[in-house]
Amino acid sequence: MALTPVLTAHWDDPKSFEIESYKKHGGYVALKNSLKMTPDEVIGIVKDSGLRGRGGAGFPTGMKWSFVPQNDGKPHYLVVNADESEPGACKDIPLMLANPHSLVEGIAIASYAIRANHAFIYIRGEVPHVIRRVMNAVEQAYAEGLLGKNIQGSGFNLEVVVHAGAGAYICGEETALLDSLEGRRGQPRLKPPFPAVAGLYASPTVVNNAETLASVPSIILNGADWFKSMGTEKSPGFKLFAVSGHVNRPGIFEAALGTTMSELLDYAGGMRKGSKLKFWIPGGSSVPMLTPDHIDIPMTYEDLAAAGTMLGTGTPMMFDHTTSVVKAVTRWLEFYKHESCGKCTPCREGTYWITGVLEKFEHGKGKEEELEVINDVCGQIAGRSFCALGDAAATPFPGAMKYFADEFREATRTSADASFPPSATTIFEKAGV
Amino acid sequence: MSIKTITDEDIKTLETLAAKYPERRSALLPMLHYVQSIQGMVSPAGIQVCAKVLDLTPAEVAAVATFYTMYKRFPMGKHHIGVCVNTLCALLGGDDLWKELTDTLGIGHDETTADGLFTLERIECQAACTVAPVMTVNWEFMDSMNPTLLRDLIDKLKIGAPVQSTRGVQITSISDSQRVLAGINDGKYQESPLADDSMLAGLRVAKERKMSAPIGKGAK
Ligand SMILES: Cc1cc2nc3c(=O)[nH]c(=O)nc-3n(C[C@H](O)[C@H](O)[C@H](O)COP(=O)(O)O)c2cc1C
Ligand code: SF4
Ligand code: FES
User: Fold this and answer.
1) What is the pTM of this model?
2) Share of chain A above pLDDT 90, in %
3) How open is the CA angle B205-B208-B210, to the nearest 5 degrees?
């Protein structure tokens, strides 16, 4: 498999975020083509393409759109999930900074397909630089008659609102996001009903990830077969892979699904000088870690599932031999404890409890038998929590124990910082400080 | 620090925010950003005003405001400084940056310097892991930080010298950034630098190695 710049193809254009640049490279032609088709024809193409959601779960996008009831007399809504807050995920934010119009065009096409006249872009609050770019792109699109009333003379109307969150990871969970967008505490809702039936303001709503929607215009423009000519049968198309950590050239690598981690690592310039890969996480801290033995597995939904993990957000974090697994896992649990919304007991109490015990291990004071107890508590959280954040919180520890149990045993005697001096793990040496 | 009062003009702005949504309550988060941009915090007065505009009880608004970490119940300083201490940034150097910063300024998490200049916060993953370790000033990103850059940053902010965020605008104040979060476009979208090395990493390799996506029928 190879690098396949589509979304990123023109990011080196000095004006990549302006509408002229986007249009120069074929932007908004897909919208015009879509408006000449029926909404069902548009859904059909996206279904045929096999595009799967890039927000983490990989749900087929065309199928999700087709769940929205037709002629139900209710308003329909499209909600863009641009809350990107999963530890390790860093693809939607750069995408919206460099080329917000690909998202805006995707929104217009998707809204037309699901018969929505109102779309909301929910962007995490901590990124004013991105919010400016997206607000500007929306304004430019309105000014050119690509949003608003009677778009391109088609009779289709669409209002788009850019909305900032306020710092809560849980608001990336789609139903929590909807509550947040209604001006409430961002806590998950019971499913069913699913958003497609009763979402925003209890009306049919599609929630899609920003990268998912930005991928749609190219599919409409080039066809489902073109999209499927990349990737694998079950994981067709291209994807933004964001590689971070102890590599020489961290960054965004847009490649066909099915590209292996070793290929991506090569594109990223390999591990930093004198270092060896110790563990890596394919797509956000909520999916189990892997080791160097796994770097030739194709990065697809199905192959990574077979390896006991998930593609998730497709944003691999690479850690080298200087890294303490115990410290890494403890820090992730501190995150989940902080972000647990408190609605259900297993997650609220479980994350609190596990974090406390893990912190003892980080300081070299854990007790061997407590490892079994943490494992049990993870088992109590996973599958028994109200939403997937609970499952996510129960993931890093068992994932790490599978490959690094000895390191946790060592942490009953030696602190993480003694076993793995932090000064070796930082990347300041490279910066010459 | 004296806290500014919310004026009738501000209430008009809050009204326009509420009018942007099919159901007015949806504007609550932007409205809270707005009152915080004026007062440097979400004060009881700010809660009252939002409640009144949306026809909610102050308790309902307070319940929302306390849920989200970006809303502060204490007055922030002129500059809000965040250090990402989630795993990847922390290990790559964020923990050292936090220590350096707190040692230098003599304050900790959610605290403000006596001169009212800086408020510090330990922040979570900022979706910028490819440029770790990451800091933020008034939520504008400072990518690929190190202790030398940190000292330089603080020195400049102390004397009011210009500081350009690596992805965002020239630093002004937390108030100005927070207005943008309220949905008020300050027109500064061009001030952010262009795509950086990490964003272009893949495109550059693809060009070097002559790799591309298949040519589609829609190609121009
Ligand atoms: C705790 C939690 C956080 C999530 N955060 C995000 C996020 O930031 N962005 C996102 O697109 N999806 C996130 N998701 C997944 C969404 O619930 C949802 O599956 C996704 O937005 C659907 O879009 P897609 O079908 O286009 O992938 C999160 C899920 C959970 C449980
Ligand atoms: S699992 Fe955690 S985040 Fe999800 S509803 Fe329960 S407490 Fe909230
Ligand atoms: S871990 Fe710091 S930006 Fe992601």
Assistant:
1) 0.98
2) 98
3) 100
